[in-house]
Amino acid sequence: MPQKLDYLAETPSQTAGPYVHIGLAPGAAGFDIYRQELGWDITGPHAKGERIRVEGIVMDGTGSPVKDVMLEVWQANADGHYAHPEGGGNVEDGFRGWGRVITDFETGEWGFDTVKPGSTVGRDASHQAPHLNLWIVARGINIGLNTRLYFEDEPEANAKDPVLNLIEWERRRATLLAKKTERDGKTVYRFDIKLQGEDETVFFDV
Amino acid sequence: MLKPGEFYQRNRERHPPALTRDYKTSVSRSPQYSLISLQNSVSETTGPVFGHNDLDPMDRDLIYNYAQPGESAIGERIILHGRILDENARPIPNTLVEIWQANAGGRYRHKKDTYLAPIDPNFGGCGRTLTDENGYYYFRTVKPGAYPWRNWVNNWRPAHIHMSIFGTAFCQRLITQCYFEGDPLIPECPIVKTIPDPGAIEQLIAKLDMNATIPLDTIAYKFDVILRGRRSTLFENRLEGN
Q: Where is the Protocatechuate 3,4-dioxygenase beta subunit N-terminal domain (chain B) (predicted)?
């Protein structure tokens, strides 16, 4: 009989449920408890780069907004460095690059302020186009969904991006492009996520 | 530059699939196309780092962290403790663990929860902590009550505590639920049953731990969480890797 490998197995995922806010954003659940909630300031005050706002909605297979979703954002700074020991370089004081995004319970709309990230190093010394990594949990989502937000106004970088190019169905690549608009002189990117149905967003097994 | 180790591929067969018809909400919220498989890049192998400045020591004590002075949460007092390890059995130190739960009556402190069990004025229902240098964590709380939910007409959730864990990389991010040994509602629950592998379900059941119980005070359950493993960075003094 062959020997055992003796690895442990990853703990299975379970849905975050409709009350994920209690644990991860108690203010949204309707009460204050902690000195500070985590994830409300993605960049800190000293971040370089273009300040942007990102807005969107998460839609289910019936076209209805998902009103109890929580998203997490993970991104590099304007130099393309993540705030992590292996993140590629230094980041500004107070830059964490991570945020939590809660939808409006009535409309399902969400939004957050951040800086536009720089290009990051991909596999085999390739360059990844500027992107935000998103992780989506909610009632009815059995295991968190990973996706990426790319910027439509980076056509050259996007055309060379190793991850976008991995998506065989070329027309589905558009589901990862945030659309640029302006409001009161500020850059706003629109990024609607479709969990299912026509133009379902591309999700990744990372 | 030495190439950092990559994470082992997630074994999707131990996790619930996206579409699980008996858990009805999944029907319209499950992607229909295959996930696109991505090899690790720096976007996946890095993740947010937290420190002791982010939280207070009291945050891990749900019996007192929302209670009025001189008061405490109502219910069976429990310690929930364990370790966060990776698939190589290496402890994950200084990682953020957040929990949330219903109160002893089965009611959440959430503006959307309308169940008829009373709100406990001294119980918030959430806590958070960092694992220590050996990956250990503990919380003190009250055992959550079972409660009914709208799926089939007569579905009841087993007592459970939701748990969110970060690990060291964004690709290790995990939210799960901890159930309690001996609960007869576990095999009845459509959310538990989203997991196809009975052995994987066992992994979500905390075991009664009499050794960690404080006599005449607080009963204890042990719950270890395993995050994805990683091939070692190849160090010059350890070229063999793991």
A: 8-40
